[in-house]
Every structure is written in structure tokens, then in C-alpha cells.
């Protein structure tokens, strides 16, 4: 499969955010990744999942939601990585950029969030219901999305490791708020980071099926002025 790889800088508000794009020749959709606390767009787990999605005909966008300067501050204080409002606002801005600039073409958009990035993805999905067609959370903290959970209208898959008991409980609470748009799947034998053999492959497979199924039912995003 012919693929186009590129690194771009995406303007969001008053910042410029670096992102890695991987686009199959004829993508059926594009998935924007929101990494977890203390991670980056180079996260090996997210990169591995992205490769699986690419193989299913989905474009992927892995982006750093903090600028290099902000990341240096966050490395000392660990405050910005938990600023769900800030991260969600930037994700929503990137969704808008994808819809207007259309680097993947006029295709549906999905969000993949890990850890705290999952909360930001859900808040962004709630604010961009007309543009986001599916959400997947990996070992996420969807509970941190707060009141936005009840406003999500986008099909959302919550993936949690079977040995990650505390996070399972938090995801069950979030699932109750999501209602009928949410689904929780537990990956047996997996801890929080899905480091056990074969468990990340299961995450990628679940995510790929979720996105190809739900994005195929979604019309391309509308264009706001």
C-alpha cells in the first residue's frame, strides 16, 4: 500500500503544534491521537496502534499537544498534562484544521486517546459532534472528562487491561455517564500500559474494527467558516 508520511506544524490558537501524518493512498478516514500524561507523539504504543490503523486504510495524526517550552515546564511541574480543558481545546482545534485543510481528503475523523488524553478526546468529541465520528480510549481516564461525558454523542469504545482494576472501575463509572454510545471491553491479562505479549495487538485490532465500522457510517465533516 502506497503511503505518504509527513511532519507538519498545525496552528491552534496562538501556538504551533508538531504532528506526524501517515496517509494511505486512499484513506477511508483519519484518526487523531491524544497521548497520555508524560508521553509524546513518539509514544511506541501509539505508533504501533497507528501502524495497524494505517493497514486498515485509515490515516493517522500523532501530535504533541504541548509546545516544547510548555513540555519543559510540565516536566518539572506535571500540571499541564492534567489540564484537560487545555488539551481538549487544542484537540478540537486540530479537528477543525483537519476538516478545513483536509490533508487526508474529505473523510470522517476519529479520536484515539490514551490515559489523560482519553478525557481530552471525549471533551473534544462533545464539542465537535458534527466532526468526530468515533472515539477509542486505551487505558484511559474518561472520568476526567467530567460533565462533558453526558454530552458525548459519538460512538466511544473504552479499552482497559484486565489487571488494571482501579482504571476498570473508573471506566465503568464513565460508561454509565456515556450511556448507549459507550462500550467497555476488557483485555484479559493486560496491565495499564498493555506491555504483556499480544495485548497491544488486541487493542489495535479492537480500535481498527471500531473506527472502520463507525467512520464508514459517518459523513465527511462539515466545514465551519
TrEMBL record:
- Name the domain of life this protein comes from: Bacteria
Q: Which Gene3D superfamilies does the protein's record reference?
A: alpha/beta hydrolase (3.40.50.1820)
Is the keyword Protease assigned to this protein?
Answer: no
Keyword hit for Hydrolase: yes
- Domain AB hydrolase-1, by residue range, is 30-169
Checking InterPro entries in the record gives:
AB_hydrolase_1 (IPR000073), AB_hydrolase_fold (IPR029058), FrsA_esterase (IPR050261)
Keywords linked to the UniProt accession: Hydrolase
A single MF term (Gene Ontology): carboxylic ester hydrolase activity
Q: Which family does it belong to?
A: Belongs to the AB hydrolase superfamily. FUS2 hydrolase family.
Q: What is this protein called?
A: Dienelactone hydrolase
What is the organism lineage in this UniProt record?
Bacteria, Bacillati, Actinomycetota, Actinomycetes, Micromonosporales
Amino acid at each position: 500500500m502506497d503511503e505518504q508520511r509527513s511532519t507538519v506544524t498545525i496552528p491552534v490558537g496562538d501556538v504551533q503544534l508538531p504532528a506526524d501524518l501517515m496517509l494511505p493512498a486512499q484513506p477511508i478516514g483519519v484518526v487523531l491521537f491524544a497521548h497520555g500524561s508524560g508521553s509524546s507523539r513518539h509514544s511506541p504504543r501509539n505508533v504501533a496502534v497507528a501502524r495497524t490503523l494505517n493497514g486498515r486504510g485509515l490515516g493517522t495524526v500523532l501530535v504533541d499537544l504541548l509546545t516544547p517550552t510548555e513540555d519543559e515546564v510540565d516536566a518539572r511541574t506535571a500540571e499541564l498534562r492534567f489540564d484537560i480543558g487545555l488539551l481538549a481545546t487544542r484537540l478540537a482545534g486540530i479537528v477543525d484544521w483537519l476538516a478545513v485543510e483536509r490533508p487526508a481528503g474529505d473523510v470522517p475523523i476519529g479520536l484515539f486517546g490514551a490515559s489523560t488524553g482519553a478525557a481530552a478526546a471525549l471533551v473534544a468529541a462533545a464539542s465537535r459532534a458534527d466532526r468526530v465520528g468515533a472515539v477509542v480510549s486505551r487505558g484511559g481516564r474518561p472520568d476526567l472528562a467530567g460533565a462533558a461525558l453526558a454530552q458525548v454523542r459519538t460512538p466511544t469504545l473504552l479499552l482497559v487491561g484486565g489487571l488494571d482494576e482501579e482504571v476498570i472501575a473508573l471506566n465503568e463509572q464513565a460508561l454509565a455517564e456515556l450511556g448507549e454510545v459507550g462500550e467497555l471491553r476488557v483485555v484479559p491479562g493486560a496491565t495499564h500500559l498493555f506491555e504483556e505479549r499480544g495485548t497491544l495487538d488486541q487493542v489495535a485490532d479492537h480500535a481498527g474494527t471500531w473506527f472502520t465500522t463507525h467512520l464508514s457510517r459517518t459523513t465527511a465533516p462539515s466545514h465551519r467558516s
